């Protein structure tokens, strides 16, 4: 079936950040990448305005028996745009992993480098090109040892993986002429990829909202600090990220403050989470309890249920719960909570 440029542009305009035009053109890897990054963080979607005719031409030639791809022994030309995309998406995947999966064992040694490598390989696999997944992941695992435990480790890991992927880039093997995959299986595979990416993050958001927002704020600040040598770029990225807050200030008539990140967290975290409500219940406190009241109640209950003074079988378990509840509420009341 011949692909239409008009249809491709229409889908690009209507659902471009979700990859609808790539799905229409049979570019499933590109479609998944756009779904996970909202059109390459917006920049890729805008850039495609001039790229769509080439994509349509490529899709229409896929079923042409006379069309031949270059031999896989000849590497594709180096693309600075693809390399930059590999680095950015690798850092993005790593940041998402640090938010949703950082509680797993061997996170910095195995989980984080594999997530970064998956992001780099996804970009490497866009279009007619691909790369050696095994070598890309190997470079990620090796680099992670040098930056173990660092919040900024996704950046060097992504750089190493991107260099490896670029070095081992090849053309994909030619498809069998006339072969066409059905839409159902294609959507199924894309859905699995989207679920694998979003499920850990969604779980973290819904079951640990406060900690997630703290970590997300710290991660964003760390990512912005990467661009210290380009202050204008850092300012532009921060402006875009805070755009919803600026719009909220305009709609509500509130003023915009320099400490905008603190204000955003105040809005998002001003209510107790379910975990904090449970902590208040354990310490027999109300929602309006002050820090002094929390500390007093904890000391009294801890003295009562300390295993050395209470022979009850449940004393140790209750004492541990009291400690955990106290730590949760201390975090809520800390002075620099929104910094």
UniProtKB/TrEMBL annotation:
Kindly give the Gene3D superfamilies that the UniProt entry links to this protein. DnaJ domain
A GO cellular component entry from the record: membrane
Where do the J domain residues begin and end?
278-339
Q: Which UniProt keywords apply?
A: Membrane, Transmembrane, Transmembrane helix
SUPFAM superfamilies, from UniProt? Chaperone J-domain
Where would you say this protein principally sits, based on its record?
A: membrane
According to its UniProt record, where is this protein located?
Membrane
Query: Known PROSITE patterns for this protein?
Result: DNAJ_2 (PS50076)
Transmembrane regions listed in the UniProt entry: 6-25, 32-50, 83-101, 146-166, 187-206, 212-233
Which membrane topology describes this protein?
Multi-pass membrane protein
What is the documented function of this protein? May function as a co-chaperone.
UniProt-recorded name of the protein: DnaJ homolog subfamily C member 22
Q: Which organism is it from?
A: Haplochromis burtoni
């Amino acid at each position: 079936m011949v692909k239409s440029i008009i249809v491709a542009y229409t889908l690009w305009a209507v659902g471009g950040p979700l990859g609808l035009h790539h799905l229409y053109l049979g570019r499933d890897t590109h479609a998944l990448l756009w779904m996970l990054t909202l059109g390459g963080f917006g920049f890729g979607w805008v850039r495609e305005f001039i790229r769509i005719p080439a994509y349509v031409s490529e899709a229409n030639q896929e079923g042409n028996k006379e069309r031949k791809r270059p031999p896989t022994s000849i590497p594709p030309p180096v693309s600075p745009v693809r390399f930059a995309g590999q680095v950015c998406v690798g850092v993005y995947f790593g940041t998402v992993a640090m938010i949703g999966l950082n509680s797993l064992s061997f996170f910095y040694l195995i989980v984080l480098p594999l997530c970064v490598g998956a992001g780099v390989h996804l970009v490497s696999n866009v279009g007619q090109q691909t790369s050696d997944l095994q070598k890309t992941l190997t470079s990620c695992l090796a680099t992670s040892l040098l930056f173990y435990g660092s919040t900024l480790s996704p950046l060097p890991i992504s750089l190493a993986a991107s260099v490896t992927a670029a070095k081992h880039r090849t053309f994909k093997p030619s498809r069998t002429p006339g072969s066409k995959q059905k839409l159902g299986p294609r959507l199924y595979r894309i859905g699995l990829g989207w679920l694998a990416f979003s499920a850990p993050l969604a779980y973290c958001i819904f079951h640990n909202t406060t900690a997630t927002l703290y970590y997300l704020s710290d991660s964003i600040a760390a990512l912005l600090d990467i661009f210290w040598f380009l202050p204008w770029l850092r300012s532009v990225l921060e402006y875009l990220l805070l755009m919803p807050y600026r719009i909220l200030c305009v709609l509500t008539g509130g003023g915009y403050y320099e400490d905008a990140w603190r204000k955003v967290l105040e809005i998002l975290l001003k209510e107790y989470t379910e975990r904090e409500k449970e902590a208040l219940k354990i310490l027999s406190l109300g929602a309006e309890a002050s820090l002094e009241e929390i500390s007093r109640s904890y000391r009294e209950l801890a003295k009562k249920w300390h295993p050395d003074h209470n022979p009850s079988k449940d004393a140790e378990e209750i004492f541990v719960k009291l400690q955990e509840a106290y730590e949760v509420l201390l975090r809520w009341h800390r002075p620099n909570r929104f910094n």
